[in-house]
Specification:
This protein is α/β, with parallel strands linked by helices. Helices cover 55% and strands 8% of the residues. The chain has one domain. The protein has nine helices and four strands, in the order βαβαβαβαααααα. A four-stranded parallel β-sheet has the order 2-1-3-4. The termini are close together.
C-alpha cells in the first residue's frame, strides 16, 4: 500500500531540495520507507502568508494524498496557535495536515549536519532570524556546488541525514514533527 505525502513549503524553488529528502527520511523512520513525497509547486507559494492563502485550494486539489505537511520558516514567530487552527481547518476539509515551522528557517535543518563548518555557535545559528542571509548563503557558497540545481542543497542535506539522530537533537521541532507523523501513521494501521 503506497503512502503519499505532499510537502507545502513557503517557496519550493530551493526549499524543495531540502524538504523532500528530509520528509522521505522522516516517513521511513515512521515505517513508510517507500512513501511517495511530492513538494507542492502548483500552485507555487511565495512566502508564508501566500502559502497560507493557498491552503484551501491545496486541500481540495490534493485531497487524495495521505498526508499534507506545511513546513514554513518560523522567522522569529511562534506559529503554534495558527498551526493548530490550520490543522483543524484541514480536518474539516477531509485532509490530514501537520504543520511544523523551521527554527528559524528551513536552511537551518540542512546546516544541522555541518556544525563544524559554521563560524557561529549552534545556538547563535538557531537564534538568528535572518539566518539564511547571514549564515546560510556564505555557507552554501563555500560548501555547496553552484553547478548543481539547488546549488548543492541536495548533497548537503544527504550529508546531514547521515547523522539523523544528531539532526533531531539539534532541531527538536523535527523530533516533534516525526512523533506527530508516526502517531498519525500508527492510527491508520489501527483503522485498517
Amino acid at each position: 500500500m503506497s503512502f503519499r505525502a505532499l510537502v507545502i513549503p513557503e517557496d519550493p524553488t530551493f526549499n524543495g531540495y531540502i524538504l523532500k529528502p528530509l520528509v522521505g527520511r522522516i516517513l521511513a523512520e515512521c515505517g513508510r520507507p517507500n512513501a511517495k513525497v511530492m513538494v507542492l509547486t502548483n500552485p507555487k507559494a511565495d512566502g508564508y502568508d501566500h502559502a497560507k492563502t493557498l491552503l484551501d485550494e491545496v486541500f481540495k486539489r490534493y485531497k487524495h494524498h495521505d498526508l499534507l505537511l506545511f513546513l514554513p520558516d518560523a522567522d522569529g514567530n511562534d506559529r503554534s496557535g495558527e498551526f493548530a487552527h490550520l490543522e483543524q481547518k484541514a480536518l474539516r476539509a477531509g485532509v490530514r495536515l501537520v504543520c511544523c515551522a523551521a527554527v528559524q528557517e528551513v536552511e537551518v535543518w540542512l546546516m544541522a549536519g555541518h556544525t563544524g563548518k559554521l563560524e557561529k555557535s549552534w545556538s547563535e545559528v538557531r537564534a538568528d532570524v535572518s539566518v539564511k542571509e547571514n549564515i546560510f548563503v556564505p555557507f552554501l557558497k563555500e560548501h555547496g556546488d553552484a553547478r548543481r540545481a539547488g546549488g548543492g542543497r541536495d548533497l548537503l542535506i544527504q550529508q546531514t541525514l547521515t547523522n539523523y539522530d544528531g539532526l533531531l537533537d539539534r532541531c527538536p521541532e523535527l523530533r516533534l514533527l516525526q512523533e506527530s507523523i508516526c502517531e498519525y501513521i500508527q492510527s491508520l494501521s489501527l483503522e485498517a
